[in-house]
Specification:
Rossmann fold; 8 helices; about 20% strand; six-stranded mixed beta sheet; about 190 residues; alpha/beta
């Protein structure tokens, strides 16, 4: 856990529209009572999609930095272990710590390592990955959108993600980062699910 990322929107270049869009999330994390008083719901999860090097991780850190909330970060590959049950246990532990430190951001980098479509392989490693994915889905279903925990995940392979991750109530919003040819900056588009 990083109590303060030290990163703000000023540190993120080329995605001004995305930063403006995420101000709503920042405001919710700063003052959730303003949103809950009027019955507004913030998305539980946001999926950042794009090639490596487009600023997905930096933007996630900047959201936490702007809001002044703790930032929990883990790579999807860290969840998947050789021993069955370890990954699911890590997911439970992560969300337990997040609930204790809410409001906060939980960032899962390379979610495709654990969130790949189920039933696409055989063997013990696949069973462990599926158990870990099931636990992640359970945890995301187990908290209300107004608990102050926002899950942000990043991938460069949204096409292989399990459809259960993308259904409403989990990753409600997708943000796509595209490298523009001949330009070092990134393009941005948002897809509401």
């Amino acid at each position: 856990m990083e109590p303060n990322t030290g990163v703000t929107f000023d540190d993120v270049a080329g995605v001004d529209e995305a930063k403006q869009d995420f101000m709503e999330v920042v405001e919710f994390l700063k003052k959730p009572e303003r949103f809950t008083a009027v019955g507004a719901r913030i998305p539980k999860g946001v999926l950042l999609v794009g090639p490596p090097g487009t600023g997905k991780t930096l933007l996630a850190k900047a959201i936490a930095g702007e809001a002044g909330v703790p930032f929990f970060s883990i790579s999807g590959s860290e969840f998947v272990e050789m021993f069955v049950g370890v990954g699911a246990s890590r997911v439970r532990d992560l969300f337990k710590k997040a609930k204790e430190n809410a409001p906060c951001i939980v960032f899962v980098d390379e979610i495709d390592a654990v969130g790949r479509q189920r039933g696409t392989g055989i063997g013990g490693g696949n069973d462990e990955r599926e158990q870990t994915l099931n636990q992640l889905l359970t945890e995301m279903d187990g908290f209300e959108g107004n608990t102050g925990i926002i899950v942000i995940a990043a991938t460069n392979r949204a096409d292989i993600l399990d459809s259960a991750l993308l259904r409403p109530g989990r990753f409600d919003r997708q943000v796509r980062f595209l490298i523009m040819l001949g330009n070092a900056s990134c393009s941005y588009s948002r897809i509401n699910c």
